[in-house]
Design goal:
- The protein is α/β, with parallel strands linked by helices and 188 residues long.
- The chain has one domain (8-187): Lambda Exonuclease, Chain A (Alpha-Beta Complex).
- It has helices at 11-19, 21-28, 34-50, 99-115, 145-162, 174-177, 183-187; strands at 8-10, 56-65, 72-83, 88-92, 127-132, 137-141.
- Strand 5 (127-132) and strand 6 form a beta hairpin.
- Helix 1 (11-19) crosses helix 2 and helix 1 (11-19) runs antiparallel to helix 4 (99-115).
- The longest helix is centred in the C-terminal third of the chain and has 18 residues, at 145-162.
- The structure holds iron/sulfur cluster.
Amino acid sequence: MTTPSILRVGGMLVGYYWLCPRKAWLSMRGIWMEQESDTVALGRLLDEDSYDRSDKHIELEAEAPDGTSGSTIRLVGKIDRANLREGVLHETKKSRSCEDAHLWQVRFYLWLLFRNRVTRADGTPFRGQLDYPLLRRTETVTLEPEHETELIQTVTAIRNLATQDIPPARLTKRTFCAKCAYEELCYG
Ligand code: SF4
């Protein structure tokens, strides 16, 4: 396996890291499982079926300080749907089972806007919204000052993880792993 040459930390990777550092490591090495693709496809389908056609797709880049070395880390975000008039970034998920990871993924996107000094026309910050169309629920997400420290620590940890030659240990919570696309690879 090869180390990613130019690491760019994105929102999905941040979400993976919150779920399981091993999962983040495997995806950074370009290892994808079919179920993962199905999940992404389902997400797209839910997006297309559920929401306003005027929503915009946004791609963002930013840099953040590395929390340990003093250098910088490149950050990228692909926001599937943003309602610019309302100032809301949407992220669609099928279930709430990994909600912490979902929250950090959306906070990461809000952080990219913050680092680029992008606000709504009236100067107020964007907010995020997790959409669970299958559950008919939504969850509001905001970026608070303490989240920035946590996000710097997270992207620094991901940067350090990328340099590891071997993956982190498996999670011990096997019931959680049963829902993961990498389950066979980790336990097969
Ligand atoms: S199966 Fe478990 S240990 Fe393996 S990547 Fe998925 S969550 Fe992590």
